Structure prediction request, 350 residues.
Amino acid sequence: MAKKIEELDRNFAAAKPVGEYVYRSVWEIPALEIEGLHPGTFCRMDPAVLPLMSEGVQELAWHTSGGAVRFRANGKRFGFRMELRSGGDMSHMPRTGISGLDIYLGSGEGCRFRQSTQPACGATLAEGECLLPEGGEEVTLYLPLYNGLNRLELGFCPGEEPLAPAAHRLEQPVLFYGSSITQGGCASRPGNAYAAMLGRMLDCPIRNLGFSGNGKGEREMADYIASLPMAALVLDYDHNAPSPEYLQKTHLPFLQRILESHPDLPVLFASKPDFGRTSAAEDAQRREVVRASYDWMKEQGLCAAFLDGERLFDGPLADSCTVDGCHPNDLGFYRMAMAMYPLLKELLEG
Prediction:
């Protein structure tokens, strides 16, 4: 029988915690700041409104994409253990992105990747520990992109308590609404989804409402988004609109419903990045629908920016930015974040 790779190369084996920790649920540790989730739940939306949404959104809302746990650790290490909702995998996305827990140290633009979990294939339980520099450090945990959590616990050495994290430069979140690309498919790690990258670059919380195959601009979703606090909106759902005609019918009304509750909200519009993969003519139609909503905002004297999706992957190796011609890999997400960053920064400052 062939040996497993971790038997041949121990660098591929998931490390087990060696420290002695006192574990508690993240909901039981007062100093933690938990972002991108409905309070007290591992759901990206208020569970009470889910019956109003499509069947797909009802399930995908429990995927924790955009969820983050922040704190300041004052010891030399901490442990973590989690129970995933599913042990399933996808054929074109690493399990570290689907079900992994990313650990970053530092804050804001100084936030740097430290390590990621490596959940075993088919397993729903994962654990690990993180060693810290002397004197403690700011910690951000990014939660799984295409899986959910039943339980997440942090462990600290006896007598140690985490402290509250430093405040973000921007208090209110940037909200992202869109498709599987917005949700994070197919990043290799949660921290490499473009929304997470932008959160670090802008030093702000994020709210990821990307729903794989189910970002369709429904009125009920517009009503829900309108009820949320946010500093800016990134509107990126044309990929999931069934047709250009459907997009034409829903795009501007969806936007206008949100603006009724947030009349001064800055909005970044982005059209689909895999331009022309199936039909350049149809993609051009979709782009013009998105551009028309941008034009309408500008005519009203509102704060908006438009990003042509055909340009999102521009640069060397532009043909190497996806895993399947559609969903970005880490290079593709980096290109998207770098294209959006100056526009979002200007919108937020203006």
Observations:
- DSSP finds nine helices and 14 strands in the chain.
- The first helix runs from residue 5 to 8.
- The chain has a mean pLDDT of 94.
